[in-house]
Amino acid sequence: MFRNSYQGGAVFDIFSGQGKDPVAKWKLSGGPSAIHKEYNKEVKGFVYCLEGSSQTVKMQMPENAKMSLGLIQRFLVLQVNIPRCHDFSIELVITDLEHLKRRLHFSTVHKKLAATPLHARIP
């Protein structure tokens, strides 16, 4: 998806809430009542709000799970606001130079760290 994009700078944005349809290349699960865009005064911009169970309301990028984002940056920074007493989870699938997939699953549901060479569940 971003494989042919210039990523040589210090920062490379893969998502922003700005624009006409910023989630056009995303797979959204949960329906329009569960995922909506709204203006946030603290951020001074648009954000996406996901309301409902973290198991049914999802945003996935790229839309096709078999595709790769093709990111080569060393760091990934996410800005997420999780309301108190709400569940949250995010799964990152990282492919190394030998094309082995490694999954990192961050979730408020997990109580302790569990890791294998190819998978990690992180509270």
TrEMBL record:
<dbReference type="InterPro" id="IPR007714">
    <property type="entry name" value="CFA20_dom"/>
</dbReference>
<dbReference type="InterPro" id="IPR040441">
    <property type="entry name" value="CFA20/CFAP20DC"/>
</dbReference>
<protein>
    <submittedName>
        <fullName>Chromosome 3 open reading frame 67</fullName>
    </submittedName>
</protein>
<dbReference type="Pfam" id="PF05018">
    <property type="entry name" value="CFA20_dom"/>
</dbReference>
<feature type="domain" description="CFA20">
    <location>
        <begin position="1"/>
        <end position="123"/>
    </location>
</feature>
